[in-house]
From TrEMBL:
Domain CMP/dCMP-type deaminase: 5-120
PANTHER family attached to this UniProt entry: 2,5-DIAMINO-6-RIBOSYLAMINO-4(3H)-PYRIMIDINONE 5'-PHOSPHATE REDUCTASE (PTHR38011:SF7), DIHYDROFOLATE REDUCTASE FAMILY PROTEIN (AFU_ORTHOLOGUE AFUA_8G06820) (PTHR38011)
The family this protein is said to belong to: In the N-terminal section; belongs to the cytidine and deoxycytidylate deaminase family.
Keywords: Hydrolase, Metal-binding, Multifunctional enzyme, NADP, Oxidoreductase, Riboflavin biosynthesis, Zinc
GO molecular function, one term: diaminohydroxyphosphoribosylaminopyrimidine deaminase activity
Co-factor binding comment: Binds 1 zinc ion.
Listed PROSITE patterns: CYT_DCMP_DEAMINASES_2
Biochemical pathway: Cofactor biosynthesis; riboflavin biosynthesis; 5-amino-6-(D-ribitylamino)uracil from GTP: step 3/4; Cofactor biosynthesis; riboflavin biosynthesis; 5-amino-6-(D-ribitylamino)uracil from GTP: step 2/4
Listed name of the protein: Riboflavin biosynthesis protein RibD
Requisite cofactors: Zn(2+)
Reaction(s) catalysed by this chain's protein: 2,5-diamino-6-hydroxy-4-(5-phosphoribosylamino)-pyrimidine + H2O + H(+) = 5-amino-6-(5-phospho-D-ribosylamino)uracil + NH4(+); 5-amino-6-(5-phospho-D-ribitylamino)uracil + NADP(+) = 5-amino-6-(5-phospho-D-ribosylamino)uracil + NADPH + H(+)
Length: 323
């Protein structure tokens, strides 16, 4: 295996580790790190609850003296700034005597932004940036917040084969099956906040929690888009653009047709997750209301399928917004 192919493989593994940090690492990004020496993993880590220790620190602590001469594969450039909560990861890597560092994303934080790589190189360590899609995907919320000032937005829609989310009378529970609903709860568990519209809140009184064994403490912050007043413990925003005010890197939306349309019209949806049940409703309520589209050609080349799987009798497909 070539060095480039090996680097790609280990960064893939580091990106999978990074997913374990989400969302508990908030407000810090979820980062993954793997230390490899002579083809063997000697340490691995991901950002801990509350953001500390960082992934590199956890991997170095696990590796101990074996980190000397190793290659560190990390999804995000090692930080260069000191904190009251711990030393800079670039310093830790220098002190441990690693031989090489390969990162998948340069840190947009101005306190690091290339300074982490510079510190490593000044110490004689080979530091390389590999623009790695899986690493970037694992940091989607952090990068979205850094570049646009808002959280990364995933919108979930559960619909029939003919695109309905409810009967004409409004009955919607349940379109999807038990396996698909469990999958939805696993998606809630990795979000910092979950949003519904005021109509859904008033009609269904949704709990918006996580009801999976071992994950019941992962309930995200509840948010309602409404002009009204929500109960204590529920955040209210009045317009889609106010999601920038949320303390969140990842926002999960369980949308009705009007909410879906409002976020799509504002181009604030980064990922669509669609659960499609093998039923035909006919004459029911559509999944998305008017988004202001006037020409069919404008609907093309906006979404790219990035995932597809079978969940019991339902199909799941995820689409990433092409920008």
């Amino acid at each position: 295996m070539t060095t480039a192919a090996s680097d790609w493989r280990w960064l893939d593994a580091a990106a999978r580790l990074a997913c374990r940090a989400r969302p508990a690492s908030f407000p810090n990004p979820g980062v993954g790190c793997i230390l490899v020496k002579d083809g063997m993993v000697v340490g691995r880590g991901w950002t801990a609850v509350g953001g500390r220790p960082h992934a590199e620190a956890a991997a170095l602590d696990q590796a101990g003296k074996r980190a000397h001469g190793a290659t560190a594969y990390v999804t995000l450039e090692p930080c260069a700034h000191r904190s009251e909560r711990g030393p800079a990861c670039s310093e830790r890597l220098v002190d441990a005597g690693v031989a090489r560092v390969v990162a998948g994303v340069e840190d947009p934080d101005p306190r690091t932004a290339g300074a982490g790589f510079a510190r490593l190189r000044d110490a004689g360590i080979s530091a390389e940036l590999v623009h790695h899609p899986a690493a970037e995907a694992s940091l989607a919320g952090y990068l979205m917040r850094a570049h646009t000032g808002r959280p990364h937005v995933t919108m979930k829609l559960a619909m029939s084969l003919d695109g309905c989310i409810a009967t004409a009378g409004g009955e919607s529970q349940w379109i999807s099956g038990e396996v698909a609903r469990a999958h939805v709860h696993s998606r809630r568990a990795i979000a910092d906040a979950i949003l519904v519209g005021g109509g859904t809140w008033r009609a269904d009184k949704p709990r918006l929690d996580v009801r999976l064994p071992g994950l019941k403490d992962r309930g995200p912050q509840r948010v309602v888009l409404t002009r009204g007043i929500a109960p204590d413990g529920v955040k209210v925003i009045n317009t889609p653009d106010q999601i920038a005010q949320l303390d969140a890197l990842y926002l999960y939306i369980e949308a009705g047709a009007n909410i879906a349309a409002s976020f799509m019209k504002a181009d604030l949806v980064d990922r669509l997750e669609i659960y499609r049940a093998p039923i035909v409703i006919g004459g029911g309520r559509g999944a998305v209301a008017d988004v202001g589209l006037t020409k069919l050609e404008d609907a093309h080349d906006r979404w790219c399928q990035v995932e597809r799987r079978q969940l019991g009798s339902d199909t799941f497909a995820a689409y990433s917004r092409t920008r």
